[in-house]
Amino acid sequence: MSHNVNESVWDKLYQQKQSLLKYPDSTFVTLLNRYTSVEAHPSVLDYGFGGGANMRVMLRRGHKVTGIEISDAVIEINQQILEDESLEAELFNINSDVLPFKDNSFSFINAWHVLGYNSMRSLDKRIQEFKRVLKPGGKMLGTVPAYGDVSHNSAKALNEHEFESQISSQKGAKILCFPCENSVKNIVDESIDIGLMQSPLLGETYSRHWVFHYEK
């Protein structure tokens, strides 16, 4: 969420109401229930909430959610959905290397299908900011694209981890893809639990993401 071209791409997609998933990610829901509880993790930072389906799961569960996006369009869409469903969350348009929150502000951070839209430099800054605003004992769930993901196979390599998307709806967007578990641990933390999430798409393409769990 750090490149101007990425902002333009996603704002256009959201204005056209594309990439707005109606249903929550089943893996996210499983891990949310496995690693967190409302009692132990009441305050949530949902970083890059997109269509908001995962956010609404957390709200219905009883968490207090603060959401961050880089598109006014998607914030307006989600505010209307929340109002229609009698839910409340604080939603902000923030695209800065520094999060405008105090140290130890949140007990849980969700960064699902969003961290790949960074450079290695900006991702490192994001991770450090997450650790700063996460409370001691707090949890973080996140994903990054893996080699073999459709975004990786449909991109032009800039270096080992950084790519330029050639997918028509995202052409020019900068993305990150990681070849192995250790490459993710090197950027997030050696202590993370990590696994590979893969599902088939149309044809011979796949969605492949490294999923990680971090505890401060």
List keywords for this structure.
globular; seven-stranded mixed beta sheet; 10 strands; 216 residues; three-stranded antiparallel beta sheet; alpha/beta
Describe how the helices and strands are arranged.
Blueprint lengths: L3 H12 L10 H10 L7 E5 L5 H9 L2 E6 L2 H13 L5 E4 L12 E6 L8 H14 E12 L4 H4 L1 E3 L4 E4 L8 E3 L4 H7 L5 E8 L5 E10 L1
Parallel strand pairs: 1-2, 1-4, 2-3, 4-5
Antiparallel strand pairs: 5-10, 6-7, 7-8, 9-10
Q: Could you tell me the number of beta strands?
A: 10
Over all CA atoms, what is the radius of gyration? 16 Å
Kindly estimate the percentage of residues that lie in beta strands according to DSSP.
Answer: 25-35%
Based on Cα principal axes, name the global outline. globular
Q: In whole angstroms, how far apart are the ends?
A: 23 Å
What structural class do helix, strand and pairing data support? alpha/beta
Task: Provide a count of the helices.
Answer: 7
Give helix and strand order, one letter per element, not per position. Answer: HHEHEHEEHEHEEEHEE
> Spans with pLDDT under 50 lasting ≥5 residues?
none
Average pLDDT confidence is 90
Query: Which range best describes the helical content: under 10%, 10-25%, 25-40%, 40-55%, 55-70% or over 70%?
Result: 25-40%
Strand order, largest beta sheet: 3-2-1-4-5-10-9
Largest sheet: 7 strands, mixed
